[in-house]
Design brief:
alpha+beta
């Protein structure tokens, strides 16, 4: 972590952590957010960086996040007051040993506090003013001897741009004091308003303060966010609210600020350049895990990315039809052979912000005719979706558009039979019979941000998950909106159990030809880019070779980025990192 001079608090003001009153009046929420956005635009105040040429993140970005969440809470309930309480990630050990895996902060906690390197913390936001307080543990001499001295609280406050930082042992007393203070506080706007105060306050009664805790279902994993817990929290059981915060913060995470987009542009740049390096080094005789190692080395050495966004998928040859290859039982351990196609799904994260990129290319540096057919069908699907993406478009319909393009490609190479009918007509008939799900049995893409499969896919009041094959794997069925970042990852795979099932299905079997058997053992092709939804379309943050000529040129040692963009329809926003900032390139 590298720190610049901290001027952020002079803009925001502060409250004494030891007193119940204000040292300085807290500015209105809108003013806090405006001040934070100004700091973000100039990268002023404290910053996060891994040094050298790694990206500089203004910590004011997290102040913007906090202001968004508080505002969302107040929009739910304008009279809301109390404390938002979150518990950060814990440093764990491996099974029954004392080995500590590399710590990674809990995502909701990171979204609000940006404390990526501090484990076992708690954090609060006060309502309605949005004041942030972080609680960091200190340790005794036994731990300090091994792990070094505990962090200095003033240093942490300046480092993260927070109003207050205390020892975690003070949490219980702080919550009790703040809840009482907020109960006793009379809303200034109502006390200064001469007209209708009693009616506005419900006959003069003050709404009691609440303790807002995080609890809700992650619709990807099926797991629940766990509410914060400390000894003595039962005292507040009557004022706990475990619903409001999850709704607000999850929806806030769906829509990225301009500062968050800049971070994701960086993670995409780092990961794209790493994919290019892997393409250049790949050759028959290597092992899949060597490709994984090359990617990890590049992203950490040149990008400061200690963490991967997810387990690397380095699936070559027949392995490429296993959608989540690389996990237990399939540990990227196949030998690369002549004629194989490689499907590499790898993305690094920086300061907990993810990238998710998939490239497919021939191990030998030359596509076979069959590989070209399948690759171009998937590329056509990706380009079609990117061309259509704009606010108001249904993500479910985008999935269908991708299926249409892939099915057209499969008809073109003889795997599917057009039955002598008009191509567009027969494609719709195939979709009705769920033929698309045979060859693309996953969803088109997902939200991405602090998590690879980011939150907000199926909130209350938005379209529910479909039960149809293929589309039921979509991680959201929402209409896309400006500020969302979503992956576009069509794929075409030849998975024996799905092919065998289709050949015995009365609705599907007459579409498949004998040619499908030529593709058993082929594996699959997937192309995946991270795309930002703009006011009138979209912007592709990923900068990987996509056209076949780009792939082959890079594999033979050609320059990247290229001198000319041969696929402007992919809407790649060309950029590079210089002196810790992303700079756009003229192509």
């Amino acid at each position: 972590m590298v720190i610049k001079s901290n001027n952020i608090m002079s803009s925001f003001g502060a409250r004494s952590g030891a007193a119940t009153g204000y040292m300085m009046k807290m500015p209105p929420l809108a003013d806090k957010r405006a001040a934070a956005e100004a700091l973000c635009s100039t990268c002023a105040g404290p910053i996060y960086s891994q040094g050298l040429n790694t990206f500089k993140i203004p910590m004011a970005m997290f102040e913007v996040n906090r202001a968004k969440v508080v505002q969302a809470m107040l929009e739910q309930d304008p009279s809301a007051k109390g404390l938002i309480l979150l518990e950060g990630g814990k440093q764990t050990t491996r099974y029954d040993t004392d080995h500590e895996p590399v710590f990674r902060q809990e995502s909701y906690f990171h979204y609000l506090f940006g404390a990526s390197q501090y484990s076992d913390c708690f954090g609060t936001l006060s309502l309605p003013d949005g004041e942030a307080t972080l609680f960091v543990p200190s340790y005794g001499v036994e731990v300090e001897t091994v792990c070094g001295p505990p962090p200095d609280f003033e240093y942490v406050k300046d480092e993260l741009g927070l109003e207050n930082v205390h020892d975690v042992v003070d949490l219980k007393a702080f919550v009790e004091r703040e809840m009482k203070r907020l109960d006793d506080t009379v809303d200034e706007s109502s006390s200064n308003d001469d007209l209708g105060n009693e009616e506005k306050k419900g006959g003069g009664e003050q709404t009691g303060s609440k303790l807002y805790l995080l609890k809700g279902l992650n619709t990807d994993s099926g797991n629940f966010a766990t509410p914060a817990f400390f000894e003595g929290i039962d005292k507040f059981s009557d004022v706990r609210d475990e619903e409001s915060l999850f709704r607000s913060i999850s929806e806030c995470r769906v829509f990225k600020s301009s500062a968050e987009i800049d971070v994701m542009r960086y993670t995409n740049w780092v990961s794209s350049m790493a994919h290019v390096e892997v393409m250049r080094q790949c050759k028959p005789g290597m092992m899949e895990y060597q490709l994984e190692s090359l990617f990890q080395h590049h992203t950490y050495t040149h990008g400061g990315c200690r963490h991967m966004s997810y387990t690397c998928i380095c699936a070559c040859g027949p392995s490429a039809n296993i959608l989540h290859y690389g996990h237990a039982g399939r540990p990227n351990s196949r030998l690369l052979e002549q004629g194989m196609i490689a499907l590499l799904d790898m993305g690094a994260e920086y300061n907990c912000y993810a990238s998710d990129i998939t490239c497919s290319f021939p191990v030998s540096g030359t596509f076979t005719d069959d590989q070209k057919h399948i690759y171009n069908a998937v590329l056509a699907a990706q380009a079609k979706v990117i061309a259509m993406l704009k606010p108001g478009v249904s993500w479910l319909e985008m999935h269908r558009e991708a299926e249409r393009e892939i099915l057209k490609g499969l008809v073109g190479c003889g795997v599917l039979d057009d039955c002598g009918k008009d191509l567009d007509e027969i494609i719709e008939t195939m979709l009705d019979a769920d033929v698309g799900a045979i060859f693309m049995p996953h969803g088109l893409g997902h939200f991405i941000g602090i998590d690879t499969h980011d939150v907000g896919g199926y909130p209350q009041g938005k379209p529910a998950r479909s039960e149809r094959p293929g589309v039921r794997k979509l991680r959201t069925a929402r209409q896309v909106e400006e500020g969302m970042v979503i992956t576009v990852e069509p794929g075409c795979y030849f998975i024996d159990p799905l092919i065998d099932s289709a050949l015995s299905d009365e609705r599907q079997k007459h579409f498949l030809t004998e040619r499908v058997n030529d593709f058993r053992g082929f594996g699959g092709v997937r192309l995946e880019d991270d795309v930002r939804i703009t006011s009138d379309g979209c912007e592709n943050l990923t900068l990987c070779p996509r056209a076949i000529e780009e792939v082959l040129d890079v594999m033979s040692g050609g320059a990247w980025p290229p001198a000319t963009d041969v696929l402007p329809e992919m809407k790649r926003k060309w950029a590079t990192c210089k002196e810790g900032k992303m700079e756009f390139l003229d192509m």
